[in-house]
Specification:
With 334 residues, the protein is of the alpha/beta class. The protein is built from ten helices and 13 strands.
């Protein structure tokens, strides 16, 4: 079996490669780079230079034929993931890039499955329950990343009838660092608050109460990167040849509320501060800005969404082993 993957040099992508490299004869990696040091030890990985925003994807069109003739699986993990990125950049990477992957998939003669790495952010705060196998309608997003990932997933669903293969849509939660080491490549989600606490620990030690815009009952739908990569690899290894759409919500079985998370964070850093929940307003928004937290994060602090995991729990019982209580020390560590 041969695999073509986009986004392999990203945080999740590198972990995916490590999970899958022994299970494929050849893995073709789309990259803008001439080398990826982490992959040099693997003899069955071949770098194909290109860009998903290019209609032809590959710089050398011979590689288009190479993938089309030989690959049974495609993993599309490349995306622009920045909460405050410009719309045109997100649209080009997330929507146009996915469109080009659809065109590529249609040319593949032996393709069994297309695995698309989506996100649970395809639902906005008007939704209280996100089902696995559908997309909600009439949404109003507060950031361009979420909107363009929604559009990309919708495009895949709408054009599934043109693909002669399985379509597996994988919606990870907020991907945090390795469950054992805590290693992370970028600041995102809970790390905005972790970094703020680290930066202002000295000043916060003398403060008793800080008003903060959040709903204390809102849960943080996270999953460590190693757990996420392992679960995706299991989806792929266990897949059958039934040509239909499956959607998986990859979120730890046990996740904290924002209140729990903030209390754990203060406990780790020996702070007696209490965060007092208030509604969003100009003053609290200023506090977020001072803490280095993008304003696009604020709506997620009030989310009431819960996530359908019926299929995920049935096909991936290993997800029950992913628990915040077991990896929170590595997540929150100094």
């Amino acid at each position: 079996m041969n695999l073509f993957i986009t986004g392999a040099s990203g945080f999740l992508g590198k972990h995916l490669i490590n999970e899958l490299v022994d299970h494929y004869e050849t893995i073709y990696v789309l990259t803008r780079k001439t080398e990826i040091k982490e992959f040099e030890k693997y003899k069955n990985i071949f770098l194909l230079k290109g860009d998903i925003t290019n209609p032809n994807i590959f710089e050398d069109l011979k590689n288009l034929n190479l993938v089309a003739e030989n690959c049974q699986h495609i993993i599309h993990a490349a995306a622009l993931y920045e909460m405050n990125a410009f719309h045109e950049d997100c649209y080009l990477q997330n929507v146009v890039g996915t469109q080009n992957i659809i065109y590529l998939a249609r040319t593949c003669k032996k393709l069994n499955s297309l695995y698309y790495i989506s996100t649970i952010a395809v639902a906005d705060n008007s939704i209280h329950f996100l089902e696995e196998n559908s997309l909600p309608k009439g949404l109003k997003f507060n950031d361009h990343y979420s909107k363009t990932k929604y559009l990309a997933e919708k495009m895949l669903r709408d054009h599934f009838h043109l693909l002669n293969c399985n379509l597996r849509i994988i919606r990870p939660g907020i991907i945090v660092g390795d469950s054992k080491t805590g290693k992370i490549d970028k600041v995102d989600g809970p790390y905005f608050f972790i970094n703020a606490i680290k930066k202002y620990q000295k000043y916060l030690s003398s403060i008793a109460i800080v008003p903060l815009s959040f709903n204390p009952l809102t849960r943080i739908p996270m999953i460590p990167v190693d757990h996420c990569a392992n679960l995706i690899s299991l989806i792929i290894k266990r897949d059958n040849s039934s040509q239909y759409i499956k959607t998986f919500h990859l979120i730890s079985d046990e996740i904290p509320t924002i209140q729990d998370f903030l209390e754990d964070l203060c406990r780790i850093y020996n702070l007696k501060i209490k965060f007092f929940p208030i509604s969003a307003n100009l003053i609290s928004n200023t506090i977020f800005k001072a803490m280095g937290i993008p304003e696009e994060v604020i709506p997620f602090m009030f989310s009431k969404i819960t996530y359908d995991k019926t299929l995920t729990n049935n096909e991936l019982p290993e997800i029950f082993l992913s628990k915040y209580s077991q990896y929170k020390k590595s997540l929150l560590k100094k």
